[in-house]
Write a structure and sequence with these properties.
By secondary structure, the protein is mainly α. It has helices spanning 11-34, 38-68, 76-102, 112-129, 140-164, 171-205. The protein has 6 helices and no strands. Helix 1 packs antiparallel against helix 2, helix 4 packs antiparallel against helix 5 (140-164) and helix 4 (112-129) packs parallel to helix 6 (171-205).
Length: 206
């Protein structure tokens, strides 16, 4: 790691870790949604909405700290990009749950559970990686694995689309379900954006 003569604002590390931990909470709510009947989904959506609001608060705290700090642990642009990408993940997960409730989806197509399992694993890896930003150590395996998971998510998404268009569902149901699986795919993409930003930071700091 590059040696620095100037002090750095270290609270960013704790805030990134808190943001990532909140994403784990969101991924658990997604998993809970899978096993819930229609009557329980609205309550899960409320808890997801609260988690998303907590994520917004964490993001705003990072931006506030960024605007008020003279010295930052790494480039300001990278701090902004990392915070924004973490926030995007929560936004997409909350949107997916909300759509399931709003569209009154009775049964999610087979394969959505695989999407959510990928997101859950990516959430765990991201939460484990954020504290390592302090030292920039043990991060390579993180971004490699998240990129692999995103590729896996792409394959699952394509299979889901093929399933939706195989004639089993009516046109309106296809539109509803496609929007849900597309948003879950966007969440997977956002995890990759986080990993790519972490890689960029690590390379600059090496």
């Amino acid at each position: 790691m590059r040696f620095r003569l100037t002090p750095r604002e270290t609270s960013f590390y704790d805030m990134f870790a808190a943001s990532a931990d909140n994403i784990v909470t969101g991924s658990k709510l997604l998993m809970e949604l899978l096993g819930a009947d229609a009557s329980a989904r609205a309550e899960i959506a409320e808890r997801m909405r609260a988690a998303e609001h907590a994520g917004d608060d964490a993001t705003h705290a990072i931006f506030h700290q960024l605007n008020s700090s003279f010295i930052t642990p790494f480039d300001r642009e990278d701090i902004y990009n990392l915070a924004s990408s973490l926030d995007d993940i929560m936004d997409f997960m909350e949107e997916a749950v909300d759509l399931v409730v709003l569209y009154q989806v009775e049964e999610l197509p087979k394969g959505v559970e695989q999407q959510i399992e990928v997101l859950s694993r990516a959430a765990e890896l991201t939460a484990e990686a954020m504290p390592n930003l302090r030292t920039m150590e043990n991060l390579t395996e993180y971004w490699i694995e998240v990129n692999r998971l995103e590729n896996q998510a792409d394959q699952i998404h394509r299979k889901l689309l093929a399933q939706l268009f195989n004639g089993k569902y009516d046109a309106i149901e296809v539109l509803k379900l496609k929007q849900i699986v597309d948003v879950l795919e966007e969440a997977a993409d956002a995890f990759e954006h986080v990993a790519n930003t972490v890689e960029t930071i690590a390379v600059k700091e090496s």
